[in-house]
Specification:
Largest sheet: none
Number of helices: 14
CATH architecture of the largest domain: Orthogonal Bundle
Helix content: over 70%
Shape: globular
CATH topology of the largest domain: MetI-like fold
Number of domains: 2
Mean pLDDT: 82
Order of helices and strands: HHHHHHHHHHHHHH
Structural class: mainly alpha
Radius of gyration: 26 Å
Length: about 290
């Protein structure tokens, strides 16, 4: 008669445990792979369509390019660069997105530090007012601000669009950075003050480096939101200051004859935010995960 030691069942269970662990991990990987393919498929279709002629796009689907890659060319991109309206719209988008992102980040960082660590009359009430502005829909301010910009001579100009984006981007930006800066240990700031550091020196040499992940995340969110915006630009920008989203939307009215412009223009509009995101991906992940682990 054989006896079974208490530890004998351990090795017998190891293959099953490894199989269960592999299946659970494999299913998650398969699920993520399917989600990734679903997201990449329209992007791939847009990319291949931008490399095909209008006749080919009209007669067959983009997937047919996989069987005849020799027919792909960059002629559409060459024609796009020769389209003065699209190129001007691209530069307008940069002139709107970059200053807006810089202004929002700089002003929000200063205000966030003030709300987190400076004492001044009405600080908490003012911060509550900033938080309350988060729930105000952007559509409510379109007409009043448009009337005010018309009186100031800013309507239909790039500075007007930038100012509108800055005004409506600051409440969330201040709320985000204030909460992040407030998590900095108080003892660290007090030690810096004891060493003779002023508020500006503490902010620039201590708070900003520690808040780099949150600032990078904010910059990415703000840039992507402004770059992809069309509602504000449709109202506040004219034909000379319109961004790429509005220019492509106007081309959509003649989609059948302008697919050679729409496809490369839309892919160009997609590539720039992707480059920005992947360039700051490491800081973005750190900012998103900040505060999740104590």
């Amino acid at each position: 008669m054989t006896t079974t030691t208490p530890g004998a069942s351990g090795p017998r269970r190891r293959p099953a445990a490894r199989l269960t662990k592999w299946l659970s991990g494999g299913l998650i990987q398969i699920f993520l792979l399917v989600i990734g393919l679903i997201w990449v498929t329209p992007v791939a279709g847009l990319f291949f369509s931008s490399l095909r002629t209008e006749e080919e796009n009209a007669t067959s689907g983009w997937w047919s390019a996989l069987t005849s890659p020799g027919k792909l060319s960059v002629d559409n991109y060459t024609a796009l660069l020769e389209n003065s309206g699209i190129t001007q719209a691209f530069w307008n988008t940069l002139l709107i997105s970059v200053p807006t992102t810089v202004l929002v980040v700089v002003i929000a960082a200063l205000a966030g530090y003030a709300f987190a660590w400076l004492e001044f009359p009405g600080r908490d009430w003012i911060f509550l007012l900033v938080v309350a502005m988060l729930v105000v829909p952007i559509q409510i301010g379109l007409l009043p601000v448009a009337k005010m910009f018309g009186a100031l001579g800013l309507f239909g100009s790039i500075p007007g669009v930038v100012l509108f984006h800055v005004a409506y981007g600051l409440p969330f930006a201040i709320f985000l950075l204030r909460n992040y800066f407030a998590e900095i240990p108080k003892e660290m700031l007090e030690a810096a003050r004891m060493d003779g550091g002023g508020e500006w020196r503490i902010f620039s040499r201590l708070v900003l480096p520690l808040g780099r992940p949150a600032i990078a995340s904010l910059a990415i969110f703000q840039f992507l939101w402004v770059w992809n915006d069309m509602l504000v630009a449709l109202i506040f920008a004219d034909s000379e200051s319109q961004p790429l989203t509005v220019a492509l939307q106007s081309e959509m009215r003649q989609f059948g004859s302008n697919i050679g412009v729409l496809a490369p223009g839309a892919f160009l509009s997609l590539v720039v935010p992707l480059i920005v995101f992947f360039a700051f991906q490491r800081h973005f992940v750190q900012g998103v995960m900040a505060g999740s682990v104590k």
